[in-house]
Amino acid sequence: MRRERRRRTTAAVPRRWRTLLAGGTVAALLGLPAPAGAAPTAPMTAAALPTTGSTTVTLPTGDHVTVDGAGSGTPTYTVEPSRYGGVHSLQTAAGDHYVVPAVASPYLGRQLDLSLFDVTTMAARGIDDGARIPVRLSFADGVTPTAPAGVTFTAVHGTSAHGYLTAKSASAFAAAARHRIGADVAAGRAPGSTPLFPGLTRMSLDAPSVTPDTVTPHYPLHTLQVNGIDSDGNAPDYLPVFITNTDSMARADVVVELQGSSERVMLPAGHYTAESFSDEFDAQGNQTKNLTVVINDFTVAASTTPSQVTVDLRTATSPVTVHSPKPADQDVLLVTYYRFDATGAGIAFQNSQWSDTPIYVNPQPAATTGRLHYVVQWSGSPADHAYRYDVAFASDDGVAADQSHQVRPDQLATVHHHLYADPGFPGERATLLSGPTDAQVAPEWGAANQSSPAYSYSLPADVTQYVGTADGGQWSFGYGPPWTGLSGDAHTYRAGHDYSLNWGRGPVAAGLGQYTGAQHVCYSCGAGDALSLGMPAQHDSVPDHTSGSFRNPPDAHFTLYRNGTKVADQDGALGATLTGVPDGSATYRGVLDTSLPSDIGYTLSTATHTEVTVRYAPGATGHPLSAGNYCAVQDGDTPCQVLPVLTLNYRLAVDRSNTSSAAIQTMRLRVGHVSYDGVGSSSPITSATVAVSFDHGASWRPAAVVGAAGRYAVAWHNPAGAAGTAPMLRVRAADANGDAIDQTVTAAYQLAAAQ
After folding, report:
1. What is the rounded CA–CA span in Å between residue 263 and residue 223?
2. Which of 37, 384, 423, 554 has the smallest number of Cβ neighbours within 10 A?
3. Mean pLDDT, the chain, as a whole number?
4. Rounded CA separation 361/370 (Å)
């Protein structure tokens, strides 16, 4: 059945915090527009697939969070390295995700509302990297509202105002927070103890939450007193405490705001866990330390006498360190607590640090109710970045007092990453992301979240990476030039073995591939009287590499035909969904045109034209989408079927700049069908032709194609007169069932200039 986000209830809404709840619909999260396009029959309607399955959200501090698969039920979150320290992430049992940069944490619950860092709501509401961040502000009585740094007012009413930040102005907001923190520390005050902006009492996100604000308790409530002690042994000026019921997280999942020694909250009786964090800073406002405290188990009694729990920051005495065989300095440190209740529902609480900023944790025994899965992820490299380590360590036995982790040579695999470049953008820099996929944690809890160091590589580049296998050895990687990104599926890497991965090897073109593991969405699937036909905007020479996030999304136009009749025609779409499809088999032809923005400086794969033809009948069976993958068109119990869309996998003989100097050009071509965990059409490939144009498509020269059954060797002549140009490439292929693909890539590769 279609995976729906579960609605949760809580027992109490603490002062000045709203309870973390779930809500929203798949359609809203996907951002689907109103049905468009003419339908051949009245019941059939069409809607566009968005131009990317990823959304990059900008936080009010200017930090970026990429949400892959928003609305799919299994989104993942990638946080770019913060300029002002680490970040704290919380994912609720319902899938709501919050990312709070350390530079903002001293002001949470004081002047900054948690909603400002609600990545789930921002992604669902389309508040992405290019959009304004709408904010609502309140000021003290008698204060004339004045816009804080980075904020532009749009309306002022008495002591309240509406305004916005932008991706650019958010840096001024963060700089002001850093300056204020540094001033507090220099004066001997606790960070955040003086106002971030004079007169401001509250700033929150000015957008409807995708979660409900109030609930009706269904359990008898009892008092819990939450006590707090800061790192100096005093009552904390401010301390957020996240409290979750571990019998069933549906009973209670709340945040208690401590501004003093204690606060009380009403909760159902039962077993609970608590998490909290605090950041320390220097007089320049730089984060110097993160303290994380987790209380694995405590009880709220069914009694008139208040139960108590104490969060003591002084117990965070164990520094998390990792030691590698060869010299390497810490680039990334992630400490994640995956806490599951007795029913299997879970939350994730994560601290992320870049550079050498330390994280201190408190020792805890294994959970007695539910389960705590504790994961340490670490990335390190020498000063010249000649190599890098990416390792992970996990435990179900609680949090040990000794947090010194040793990287053993016999637990390492070697992965050679080859990062290809566009010759029109020399010196472009790109990041290489890594994320362990922990078998103990379902993907929806962020087990495959990728992280990248603060540094980047100058393209083209070859990167040697030592990957740890202590946590099972399954990793996923991503590649991030500034204009786009590619994400790869998770694979298991065996200790002592060498692997090679190409990234950005062209032609980079629209299309589907062969995928393993949970996918955010099936672009081309059918379920009963509904189908979705489309494809990601980009993939490279590796079958499971597909589009990640876009800072400069390609222009896209998709047209869909049913038995030759146009049923959808949409700008800014990579595909279309049809509902109310009539009974009986029909032929569908999807036409996708993409082009890169003209001002980003890229010279290759500047435009693609792709046509795919498939047959589908509402009662089709035979290729059911495997469990764990998301089918956007599935409704009810009708199995989702993988459509027999053909795929093209190019392996051009080019250098790391996607440039060829050969007189005879060669290419390996693989023609297949889209598949998920091996499920997909196996109809034999019956034909494949390749043609090349050296005059911008005015004429085409056929290439020699040798092979069969979808595996071909291709060759053609690069004329001397074409030196310095970028030829076009056209490939056509078909299978025995009549399914077909026809793709033209403008500027498929670069020819070296004449010597």
Report:
1. 10
2. 384
3. 88
4. 21
